[in-house]
Design a protein that fits this description.
Shape: globular
Helix content: 25-40%
Number of domains: 3
Low-confidence stretches: 1-16, 455-459
Structural class: alpha+beta
Strand content: 15-25%
Oligomer: single chain
Number of helices: 13
């Protein structure tokens, strides 16, 4: 990792330092952070559980461990507080919170934790140990509103090569930049090869607002590279306050590369297609609203589906087939092609079928035997008027959005894996092609989905041809 001063930018906006500058000292695995002041907080407006001193150790890119040494001022209150989570383990607000001050005087929050306690026989200080996932700070002052996130990039992964080819070299050292405008919002990306970081800076805009943007900016990367890409560093700022984090950032796995949307023969030459894909995905994600009309804090459904297939790619071939087939149906649902009038029929054909269905239902109503089959039969007839996943996929095949092989793989494997039929655990040309065609189906459906975000934009390439 490069020294902090290598990452400093002239227009960085935390007292002249970027979020990476500020928090890099707390991120390197193996680092021990000395904390002369540590405090386990109880509930709001309650006294602390304990105040003491100790250390925080960076155990991995997803986990910190801490040791706090101190004796509670009120032993009864401390024990009651520590036991509350046992009574209701599903209420996360019953956990404690860890706040610390480092040796250089920086105040940090470690967030929620469930500590273990050791009480020595000799009457010495109690020892509290536990785990936290992140470290953060909060400051009041005058700041430039916006969002900054930084993602760690493993050396040797093709994502590094893709980004390197499609960004312009700037300044000294191995640094490249790219500026995008997405629905009027500016986004600057910086690749620092020496520091193994991709940094994104988004000033406040109508589209990219602090709090939401720190999650949104990484979602297209998870889809495009098929990896669990989450920011290691994140910063959100308003005009009067600033908050920054070191966050959990899972390791990448080569097994999940097959789930990546961005792959194929053009992946290293089609820079315009790469950035257009990122732009369309981010537009989809940032423009989505929940049932109340609010921006989504949680990941977009498309992102969630890709996270599932990325994780399934690390498992068995049966899990791969099961997850990819389900994810494809999930995207069909996002396309709005299910439970609508038949897309494979004209209006006249649908009207003719509707008459037949109504006649059939009237006939069934005359049944004099056991009444139990009546309603299921009528429901089945009604479903003939609606588009199912299979009908939608056949329609997309006829309009050339998916290939016959991609549809055939889904048609062959979908019911098989959904009903407990195992896929062969052994590799063969035929079986491998089925699994890869399922992956290709998901990617083709995704391209269809984002094509609707901006129908006048240039076509997105990168298809795994």
């Amino acid at each position: 990792m490069a020294p902090a001063h290598r990452l400093r930018r002239g227009d960085s906006y935390i007292r002249g330092m970027s979020i990476v500058d500020r928090m890099i000292q707390f991120s390197t695995v193996g680092t021990v952070i000395t904390c002369p002041e540590m405090e386990l907080q109880a509930g709001d407006h309650e006294p602390a559980v304990v105040v003491g001193e100790g250390e925080i150790t960076v155990k991995s890119t997803t986990l910190f461990e801490y040791i706090l040494r101190g004796t509670p001022a009120d032993v009864g209150h401390a024990l009651r507080t520590l036991r509350r989570i046992d009574a209701d383990p599903y209420d996360g607000t019953l956990r404690e919170r860890l706040d610390v001050k480092t040796a250089d005087g920086m105040s940090l929050s470690g967030g929620w934790t469930i500590p273990k306690v050791h009480v020595p026989d000799d009457g010495g200080p109690w020892t509290f140990t536990g785990e936290i996932e992140s470290l953060s700070f909060h400051e009041d002052g005058s700041f430039e509103p916006g969002t900054e996130v930084a993602f760690t990039l493993p050396r040797g992964h093709r994502a590094r090569l893709v980004l390197r080819r499609f960004m312009e070299e700037v300044g000294e050292g191995n640094r490249r930049e790219k500026t995008l405008v997405i629905n009027g919002a500016a986004l600057r990306l910086t690749l620092d090869d020496d520091a193994d970081l991709l940094i994104m800076h988004a000033p406040l805009s109508d589209l990219l607002r602090p709090t939401f943007a720190e999650n949104w900016l990484g979602e297209p990367l998870r889809i495009m590279f098929g990896q669990l890409i989450y920011p290691r560093f994140a910063l959100r700022q308003s005009e009067i306050w600033s908050m920054g984090w070191v966050r959990p950032s899972p390791a990448w796995s080569r097994e999940s590369d097959a789930s990546a949307l961005w792959q194929g023969p053009k992946q290293l030459i089609d820079g315009n297609g790469f950035w257009e894909t990122y732009r369309r995905l981010l537009s989809l994600i940032a423009s989505a609203r929940d049932t109340r009309g609010h921006p989504n804090w949680e990941a977009n459904r498309l992102t969630e589906l890709y996270v599932e297939v990325a994780q399934a790619a690390r498992g068995s071939r049966w899990v791969w087939a099961l997850t990819y087939a389900s994810a494809a149906e999930g995207v069909v649902g996002m396309l709005g092609l299910e439970d609508i009038p038949r897309v494979d029929m004209s209006d006249e054909q649908i009207a003719e079928l509707a008459d037949a269905v109504n006649s059939f239902k009237a006939y069934v109503d005359q049944w004099k035997g056991d009444p139990r089959p009546v309603q299921p039969a009528k429901n089945a007839a009604d479903r003939m008027l609606k588009t199912t996943a299979a009908i939608a996929l056949r329609h997309l095949r006829s309009t050339k959005w998916i290939t016959s092989d991609e549809y055939g793989a889904w048609d062959k494997l979908r019911n098989k894996v959904m009903h407990g039929k195992l896929v062969s655990p052994y590799s063969s040309a035929e079986d491998d092609k089925l699994l890869l065609d399922l992956s290709g189906l998901l990617h083709a459906l995704t391209r269809r989905l984002i094509s609707d975000i901006d129908p006048n934009a240039a076509p997105v390439s990168g298809k795994d041809e």
